[in-house]
Structure formats: C-alpha cells, structure tokens
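Sample entry (127 residues):
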Amino acid sequence: MASYNRTRRIGEEIRKIVSTMLINGIKDPRINSMVSVTDVEVTNDLSYAYVYVSILGGDEESTLQGLSSAESYIRREIGRSIKIRHIPQIIFKVDDSLIKGMYMDSLIKKVSEKDNQRSQNEETDNE
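Predicted structure, serialized as tokens:
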C-alpha cells in the first residue's frame, strides 16, 4: 500500500510539473496551447510514467511528436524538481475520455428522445 501511495504522489508531482511546462517552458511550435495533462500513471518500479494529455484543436500526431521530442528536457526538469533516485521515462498518450464521454452523452440523448417519442405515441393512442 505504501508503494501505491508513493507512486500516486510522484505521479501527481509529475503532472503538476508537466502542466506548468506546457504553459511556460516548452517552445515547440508543434505543441499548441490547447494541450492539458489529465492524468499521470507511474509504474511501481518508477521506470515509466504514462502522461495522458488532452489535445483540443490542432493535429494530435504532430503534438505528440513535439511532446516526445521534448521528453529529455521534461525529464531533466522533473529531476530538478523531484528528489528521487531514478527519473521515470516519460511516455505521452492521448486521453480520449472527453471524446468518449461526449459520444456516450449523445447516445443517451438519442435513447431518451426515442423513449419520449414512444411514450407520447402511446399517450395519443390511448386517447
């Protein structure tokens, strides 16, 4: 349990550092200003940190390439900010939970509209 809490705390610190760097520190033109860090998962052995980013507007592929090319710079800044023996390798992944959530919301709206239409049709048939 202590290991889980430690990796969670380190992940949260990495999330804060990378978020700040996206606002202030990384000057790659491929990375637009509409990139935000949604979550960071760190493996138990601290060898990898999966950084989930949400990309609104712009090209996802080129943004991920820009983030990957800045990985060594990001690791160096993490090493300066967090005092741990081994700095995890950063792996960027697109967090598409927002898109999936909007899709699920649209499906729920469609089902509720069909249900409302069906109940209205039954009411008119009963009259």
